[in-house]
């Protein structure tokens, strides 16, 4: 017995070199790209769109060198540097230096997120659902799925780089420096794609694998933030972060390329690690054993709202972190915006801040409206989750118990309402805290938190529309999005376009345009709340009357 | 000719769970081999090792004479696999999924695909999101059956199919056998195994407890008899080899060891038989026999 086993081991070794580990990589790559044919362009266009947008807005908001220097002064401040970048070129701030300093980090983080999602989606998520097993049982090499995912993510980052390049050069910036910024973003993306390639080998679960890679990204952002806050141009800590490396090219100030080599080297090291980990392991297995869950549900989970909350928890946290960062960044720019308004009254009009009083508060409240729109988007997405629950048969399973339909629906809506409240509060707090830090008035944080909550009826109104659409499933959900996107566009561009007052008044987000800390005009908000409740009721009734889909 | 699949003393653990414990399994070319065992017995694990998806901890595994872990790609040229739980990409259609799998095998015979779609009554233009479990399974079945391979590895392939489709499936397997293909069919549907398989291997807790042809397994076992006599049929109770005797109205039911059957019939005949039904043991009974009482029983063909 032992003899045969030893003999067979020896045979295994002699046959080791199969040479077919990459068979079918091309086919799998094309399949991955096909599945991402919308996703990748959306990421790339949004990122390039951000550059395009800033290219348009910054020359208006900061029309001359003096205005730019006030902006630079904020970025020199440790809090400003923490949020943005190392602060090269602040002595003589230009559009290019501004983009490289303030936007590059955020774009790099976005490319990193995109890459993490793509890699996990095509590796561990496929493995977790058993599809990798189905694929690998065909004539497919051991490393083909991982390699295809990495090629797809490389192509996605190349697309991001190319579109960013177009947007930067389109703004009249120098080509070589633009390339450094665009390639920096793409390379950071690739680096974190490789981080995800490693974490995908570690955990059996896609969510855990993305979570681990996301944590590495968060750490990278914080490391360079603290490093950049410590001293102008960054300290040693900034050099521990791939995002820091992209920012250290000093694009548009004093360009150097070699920091990008660090991204390339780290990518190579990570990829070697990923392939080594992948080589010896079973399909479907992780190297870190999965944490066992509870055998019995907690009391909270048994309640339908508890179950929904457990499912929504991750998404609420993700939105909260994202909105907080954006709100705090926006708030911290407050004083600079106010200064430029004082010299350029026409911009104040654009932001709806005319009419004296507290210019800063009035301006920021406009931003608060924009963030409330984002929360409304969350609320509609959150309600629309019900459609997927139903299509995948889970709703049917729950309703087959003695749970009534209204009870189930309202429990789920309670979670949406809770999530919306949390997000509004967090956004208001972030905006107020950022603004308070920039002008030394900490009480703003509290004021803005309260003002933000005044948007809750508006957000719930849109959630109500989505509930009605869910109840009347046949009608589809597109009209809710049409109304929401229409309101958002009118809310943002309406004042600029001189639209009639009747139109502006009909736009729900305009109902809350008041200064924080002063009296709130409660009447329209009450009507909004009534409308939201009526929509919930109508949607629930319609849901009770119709057939379940699955 | 050498065995298509030859597994000896195969062991595999997941952490502290010992999924396979010195399991044996042999398939000769051209045979349809039933692979039976209760849930968690290790059927899927064995099959994943055979496909080179899992690495064996110990033992010898060969498929077409080669080690599947080392030679997976080459071996997959010659075999097709259908898992019990098929998961597909929600946004593509069933037809596209079949073509995608086929493209990973180097193309497929379109007329064969169309024929199978028709026989399995599958609409290939629907998105897989709208498919039931059975329909997703049909996708994998059609992709496997349409490919020109020597070995079919099927892991509970019909668990979601309705009885009509089950019949279509059985027909396809018979055709595959006529075409000279070898089939490994893991199943918990005993009727399916009985009607399709030449040989059966029964496993429990990662070990092979019995393997042999159906005839070999059966002759060790009992016949169930339901009889109505003018006299009292219950008098067979005193015979050696008669078990589990029960009365149900004027019917008498009992099980009898196959070698005690002539004696039992001899006892019943003079009593004036009005009706008699005897049934061979179903694989259900074999299951109960092996998994009900812990002791492994000597096997028909080989003993483990
Ligand atoms: N990936 C895994 N991790 C841990 N345990 C596993 C894993 N796969 C299978 N097992 C365990 O191995 C045993 C055999 O499982 P399996 O081969 O799926 O059985 P069957 O297919 O016969 O139902 C079971 O006890 C199962 O829980
Ligand atoms: Mg199984």
In short:
With 550 residues, chain A is mainly alpha-helical. Chain A has helices spanning 2-14, 25-35, 39-61, 65-76, 78-83, 95-122, 124-128, 131-136, 144-170, 175-202, 206-230, 242-247, 259-279, 299-302, 304-332, 334-343, 345-350, 359-391, 394-399, 405-439, 444-453, 456-471, 478-493, 501-506, 522-545. Chain B is α/β, with parallel strands linked by helices and 304 residues long.
Q: Would you write up a description of this structure?
A:
- The complex is a heterodimer of chains A (550) and B (304).
- Chain A is an all-alpha fold and 550 residues long.
- Helices cover 74% and strands 0% of the residues of chain A.
- Chain A has 25 helices and no strands.
- In chain A, α6 packs antiparallel against α11, α9 runs antiparallel to α10 (175-202) and α20 packs antiparallel against α21.
- Chain A starts with a helix and ends in a 5-residue tail after the last helix.
- Residues 1-18 and 353-357 of chain A have low confidence and may be disordered.
- By secondary structure, chain B is an alpha/beta fold.
- Helix content of chain B is 32%, strand content 29%.
- In chain B, the strands form three sheets. A six-stranded mixed sheet of chain B has the order 5-6-7-3-8-9, sandwiched between helices. Chain B has a four-stranded antiparallel sheet with strand order 11-12-10-13, covered by helices on one side. Chain B has a three-stranded antiparallel sheet with strand order 2-1-4, with helices on one face.
- Residues 293-304 of chain B have low confidence and may be disordered.
- Chains A and B meet through α1, α2 and α8 of A and β1, β4, α2 and α3 of B.
């Amino acid at each position: 017995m032992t003899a045969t086993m030893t003999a067979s081991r020896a045979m295994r070794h002699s046959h080791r070199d199969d040479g077919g580990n990459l068979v079918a990589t091309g086919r799998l790559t094309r399949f991955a790209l096909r599945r991402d044919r919308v996703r990748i362009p959306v990421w790339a266009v949004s990122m390039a769109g951000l550059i395009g947008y800033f290219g348009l807005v910054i020359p208006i908001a900061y029309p001359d060198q003096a205005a730019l220097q006030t902006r630079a002064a904020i970025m020199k401040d440790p809090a400003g540097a923490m949020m943005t970048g190392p602060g090269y070129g602040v002595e003589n701030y230009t559009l290019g230096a501004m983009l490289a300093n303030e936007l590059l980090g955020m774009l790099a983080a976005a490319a990193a997120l995109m890459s993490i999602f793509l890699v996990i989606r095509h590796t561990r998520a496929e493995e977790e659902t058993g599809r990798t097993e189905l694929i690998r049982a065909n004539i497919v090499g051991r490393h083909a799925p991982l390699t295809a995912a990495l090629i797809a993510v490389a192509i996605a980052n190349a697309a991001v780089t190319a579109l960013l390049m177009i947007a930067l050069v389109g703004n009249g910036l120098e080509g070589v420096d633009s390339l450094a910024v665009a390639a920096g973003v793409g390379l950071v993306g690739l680096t974190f794609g490789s981080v995800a390639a490693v974490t995908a080998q570690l955990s059996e679960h896609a969510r855990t694998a993305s979570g681990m890679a996301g944590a590495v990204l968060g750490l990278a952002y914080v490391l360079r933030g603290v490093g950049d806050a410590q001293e102008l141009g960054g300290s040693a800590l900034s050099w521990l972060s791939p995002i820091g490396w992209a920012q250290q090219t000093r694009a548009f100030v004093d360009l150097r390329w070699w920091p990008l080599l660090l991204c390339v080297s780290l990518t190579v090291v990570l990829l070697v690690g990923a392939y080594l980990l992948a080589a010896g392991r079973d399909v479907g297995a992780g190297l870190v054993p999965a944490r066992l869950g509870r055998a019995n549900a907690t009391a909270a989970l048994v309640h339908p709202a508890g179950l929904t909350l457990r499912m929504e928890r991750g998404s609420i946290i993700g939105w909260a972190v994202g909105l907080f960062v954006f709100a705090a960044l926006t708030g911290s720019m407050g004083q600079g915006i106010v200064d430029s308004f004082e010299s350029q009254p026409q911009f104040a009009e654009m932001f709806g801040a005319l009419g004296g009083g507290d210019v800063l508060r009035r301006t920021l409240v406009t931003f608060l409206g924009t963030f409330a729109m984002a929360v409304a988007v969350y609320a509609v997405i959150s309600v629309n989750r019900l459609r997927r629950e139903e299509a995948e048969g889970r709703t049917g399973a729950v309703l087959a118990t003695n749970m009534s339909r209204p009870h189930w629906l309202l429990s789920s809506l309670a979670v949406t309402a809770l999530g919306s409240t949390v997000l509004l509060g967090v956004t208001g707090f972030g905006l107020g805290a950022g603004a308070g830090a920039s002008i030394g008035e900490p009480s703003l944080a509290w004021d803005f938190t309260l003002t933000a909550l005044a948007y809750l009826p508006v957000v719930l109104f849109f959630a109500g529309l989505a509930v009605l659409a869910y109840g009347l499933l046949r009608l589809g959900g597109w009209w809710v999005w049409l109304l929401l996107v229409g309101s958002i566009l009118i809310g943002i561009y309406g004042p600029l376009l001189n639209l009639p007052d009747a139109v502006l008044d009909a736009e729900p987000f305009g109902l809350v345009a008041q200064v924080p800390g002063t009296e709130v005009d409660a009447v329209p908000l009450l009507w909004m709340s009534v409308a939201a409740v009526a929509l919930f009721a109508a949607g629930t009734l319609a849901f009770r009357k119709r057939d379940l889909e699955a | 000719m050498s065995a298509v699949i030859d597994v000896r003393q195969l062991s595999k653990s997941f952490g502290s769970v010992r999924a396979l414990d010195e399991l044996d399994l042999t398939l000769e070319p051209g045979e349809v081999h039933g692979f039976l065992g209760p849930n968690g017995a290790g059927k899927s694990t064995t099959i994943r090792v055979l496909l080179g998806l899992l690495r064996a901890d110990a033992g010898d595994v060969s498929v077409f004479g080669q080690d599947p872990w080392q030679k997976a790609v080459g071996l997959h040229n010659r075999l097709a696999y259908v898992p019990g739980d098929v998961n597909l990409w929600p946004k593509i259609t069933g037809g596209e999924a079949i073509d995608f799998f086929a493209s990973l095998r180097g193309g497929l015979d379109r007329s064969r695909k169309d024929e199978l779609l028709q026989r399995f009554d599958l609409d290939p233009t629907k998105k897989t999101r709208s498919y039931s479990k059975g329909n997703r399974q049909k996708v994998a079945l059609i992709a496997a059956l349409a490919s020109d391979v020597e070995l079919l590895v099927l892991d509970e392939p019909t668990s979601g199919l309705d009885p009509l489709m089950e019949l279509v499936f059985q027909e396809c397997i018979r055709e595959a056998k006529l075409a000279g293909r070898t089939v490994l069919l893991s199943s918990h549907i005993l009727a399916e195994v009985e009607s399709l398989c030449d040989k059966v291997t029964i496993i429990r807790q990662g070990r092979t407890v019995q393997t042999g042809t159906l005839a070999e397994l059966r002759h060790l076992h009992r016949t169930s008899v339901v009889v109505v006599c003018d006299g009292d049929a219950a008098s067979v109770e005193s015979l050696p080899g008669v078990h589990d005797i029960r009365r149900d109205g004027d019917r008498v039911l009992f099980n009898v060891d196959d070698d005690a059957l002539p004696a039992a019939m001899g006892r019943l005949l003079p009593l004036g038989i009005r009706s008699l039904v005897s049934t061979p043991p179903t694989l259900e009974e074999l299951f109960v026999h092996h998994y009900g009482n812990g002791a492994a029983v000597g096997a028909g063909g080989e003993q483990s």
